[in-house]
Fold this protein.
Amino acid sequence: MLLYRYDGQFNRDAFTNQSIKFKTVIRNLNCDKQQTYDLFSGFVELFQNITLHAAHKPIDKQETSTAGITLLHLGEKTFILQSKNLIAADKVDYLREKFSSLSTLKKANEKAVMGLYILNKCSGQTLTNTVEDSVYRDFKTLTLTTSIT
Amino acid sequence: MTKIHLPPSDRTPEVILDFATGMFLFKGESYPQSPEAFLEPIRIQMTDWFKKSPSHALNFQFSFDYLDSPTIKLVMDIIEDIEELNHHNKNISVSWYYPRNNKTLRELGEEIATELSQIRMAIIAKD
């Protein structure tokens, strides 16, 4: 069941509004405090990741969104948080390298991958990423998926 | 300047910098709209004071209920400053309080503590 979906602008003002909406959604789920924390943490890191790192499509930047976040309830206490956004095709290798360094918090890489590290941590190491062709030349679509149980 | 007290807001923690006693507290939720604009001036004020009062006893308390990744980065910067300070001042205590039953914040504190080579950070559950 779809519990939350946002596919508008990703900026600081939108974050303020959407974080309030998301908090309201998860407060009504009657999850325990740990799961509520992890759901909110996952949402914040996904939103900030898109705001800071997503590429914008080439021409009509403001007309339609190419990024979004959804929260799905799969049953019992299993939830899926997922984000989609464009990334520049030439950043794919760099991104894969970042993902490969997520398993432990080490000084050498911790600050560069902190957002992804926290996402992976709050989902019990279930963070996955897929990169697919997009309709825009030179851009790919990145999907990040976490399972929070 | 003997004390700075920033009350908590929806997205920022309570911050107390008590220069008279050397007690520095960060408490509550932290996912500021502009993390660096909020936390970096605090860090600068602390480090400036450290330089002027290098042997003052210091007590750092991190008591977050939620913190986002930009805040974690800045907390790690502050802890690195503390560790640097420890070369000159051995009278420093650091505590990481986490909500009891919050495994995420407990483990985060434990991971940060393992990165510290000079200072022992106490990890304490709070109710």
Q: What stands out?
A: The first strand of chain A starts at residue 2 and ends at 6. Chain A touches chain B at residues 12, 15-16, 19, 32-34, 37-38, 40-41, 44-45, 48, 105, 107, 110-111, 114-115, 117-118, 121-122 (CB under 8 Å).
